[in-house]
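LAB NOTEBOOK - FOLDING QUEUE
OPERATOR: T.R.
BATCH SIZE: 2
PURPOSE: Compare the predicted structure-token outputs for two unrelated chains run back to back under identical settings.
PRIORITY: normal
REVIEWER: second-year student, initials M.K.

ITEM 1
FIELD SEQUENCE / FIELD STRUCTURE:
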Amino acid sequence: MSSAMGSPTNVFWHECAVGKGERQKLVNQQGCVVWITGLSGSGKSTLACSLNRELHSRGKLSYVLDGDNLRHGLNKNLGFSPEDRTENIRRVGEVSKLFADAGLICIASLISPYRKDRDACRALMTDANFIEVFMNIPLDVCERRDTKGLYKLARAGKIKGFTGIDDPYEPPLNCEIKIEQKNGVCPTPCDMAVQVVSYLDGNGFLRA
């Protein structure tokens, strides 16, 4: 018997004849996860969509897992408590792993504020195909943008546990890519995408 939670019993892994290597040859790329993390308003979704478009223009197959979009379906039963945030990231990590195994470049765009949760997603990968992208944009810049009006609500006390205001954001310690301002100017969506694509190309992910 298996329980609803925890590790299932009497369940066995089934291998298929077509493996990851064959799938990667078919699409001429290496399956991987590009995990974009940062504060609300830092540009995660903007980068994810721009990167998706840039990869598409180069004939590369990618898919975006957006944190807000996933809360409309896969994670719609989760809130924003520390426990629910951890489960939210765990689920996305597992789905990202499947996309990468299928040979796709999976672009996961989530605040993912806790370092241990992001590290747990990295640990799911059996090879070096987890690319952490840190949107290192200052809080004051993100708050000025406030495209969703969430910072205003958080400052007014109408949203509790809001990352960067009354809940911590733990920046990566050893991310592969860091997106940040230069001379006080934020990079354009195109420039951000090119920075990530250059990393992917230079590390062999854009060929089988």
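ITEM 2
FIELD SEQUENCE / FIELD STRUCTURE:
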Amino acid sequence: MRRALPPTAEINDDTKELMQRCVSEFISLITTEAIETCHQQKRVTLNGEDIIDALDSLGFEDYAPLLNIFKNRYREHRLAANMLPPPPPPPPERFFVPMSRQEVPLAAQEEEANTFVESIIRDSDDPE
């Protein structure tokens, strides 16, 4: 939240608490949708694809391509560190992100997702 605001902006405690509640509700909504899908398919294990599918079915389809990029980059990192078995081959077609709010081209979205994933990988490798 702080990154999206000017450096001089202050965030009071009530605002932080409200944002935390909103995030918790959002996570609960997405997880509930994914769990319902798992139950319908008679599965007991929830996975990343279920979360991405839940986002799609709830109208958050703009986020799915970026989450797929993140998921694939994360798996590549874990595979390189011998932490995961090889993933299945990707689908043959290329995903499409409709131009929306900021009219950001797909290449720029991919670059932003790669930068984000690299920062998470750096943070996870940091021994702090």
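REVIEWER COMMENT (ITEM 2): The mean pLDDT is 79.
FOLLOW-UP: none requested
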